[in-house]
Amino acid sequence: MKVKLQVIIIISILFLCSPSFGEESGTLNLNSSKEYVKINNPFSVKINIDNIQDVYALHIKLKFDPNYIKAKEDTIDLCDDIINKKHFIAINKIDNTTGKIELLITLLGNEASFNNSINIGIINFNTVKHGTTPINIQESNLLEKDGSYIYHNINNINMQIHERKKTSSTSSNTKLISNIIKEKENRITFEGLSLTIPKNTFLSDSTIHIKKISSDSSLSNIYDITCKNKFNKIKLSIKLKDNENIRYPCIYYYNEERKKWVYVGGKIENGYITTWVSHFTKFCVFENKYYKEYNDIANCWGKEYIQGLTMMGIINGTNQNTFKPNRYITRAEIAKIISLSLDLKEYSSNHDEFKDSKSIPSWATKYITSVVNQKLMIGYDDNTFKPNSNISRTEIAVIIDRILKNYQADNKEFLYTDDKEIPNWAKKSVYKMYDLGIFTGYDNGAFNPLAPITRVEACKVIVKLLEILKVI
Questions:
Q1: Which residues contact 4 (CB under 8 A, 6 or more apart)?
Q2: How large is the average pLDDT for residues 384-412?
Q3: For the chain, what is the domain count?
Q4: Deepest of 308, 353, 409, 420, by most Cβ within 10 A of its Cβ?
Q5: Which domain holds residue 59?
Q6: pLDDT, tens digit, for every residue of 42-51?
Q7: CB–CB of 317/323 below 8 Å?
């Protein structure tokens, strides 16, 4: 009777609770088994939770368009993470008529709560219509055992469904070689690509090679652009494929070192998406799954830095709608941002050496481990890491200097007005950051070395770092 009463209470809280948002946390994800799929082909969507602690009960509602896809079963196929615990399933249903999916589960009795990453379940679909169609999390409540709401981000997906193509012996790849005259403004248009090259962009006459590669997995063709000569910024425009369901298209470039597509950005202009680039490589348009519209950065001086790192998946808001740009950032949060920015490998945990290792949030474990392994962040003299403490402007300057240890600065003759307050062990790093344009101080000429760095200031520092590293 006691267990039954507990189940009823948890279910009631799930239906009635309203979230109380707090610090940046983990994510409820939808992950597709395929980047794109053809008509009348199967694919699956896994529901999982990443970097969230103390989940005792969950209530999730999803929505899909049954005109494009159909679920193969009428329930979600639950994963072992759920099945292997004592649990009660109140609701598990899929409705192919309305496109609604609902799952309501609570653990029972003294069963230990879920922590870190959880695989919840898998939904198997078949495609029925050509086009792009979203699968969205419409509502999600994650609760602790006492009924407290757990703040979390959500990641939805868009499925790109393509018609079956007739086999052909001809290649869809085409090439263009274009000669650029230095003294003139040049404009190249080719198979859905446009390059606008201002006068004197190149130091000498140059030749640009363009190769178009047809792609079913993106919102545009892929364009492989090469040129032996260096140049200043060139305006690049890519024609979007006709699709009424495109919401947040962005230009990406392929980073050969990281072996992945990296966000560039862009604005939509007359059916094209346009941005400025300072190097050539492969370019393509994809839908950005990290897009958010924060309601508290409209007048923020660092709005573009915040939006850029958000779209790259490097930083989250404090909830779905707010960023809190002037809140101080913690050492755990900066470890995550640096680890993602540098695409560091995940290592097995070895920070038990810190006396306060138990205070490291579970979502931050792998990020702190990665930056400690690379000796980018270290502990304090008392053998603590202090993950939840604010990080100072001086500490950030030293960390960035470690990342840029092989980069030389111009050694400008400059002193901050509060130079005497900058610790001797950090002065070289602080002034190197000034010379590189990463930190420029305040309007009064001060650096404020001991002041905690804010979230928006951290965004600017990381963007400047990525520019120097030529990641963006």
A1: none
A2: 91
A3: 3
A4: 308
A5: 2-162
A6: 999 999 888 7
A7: yes
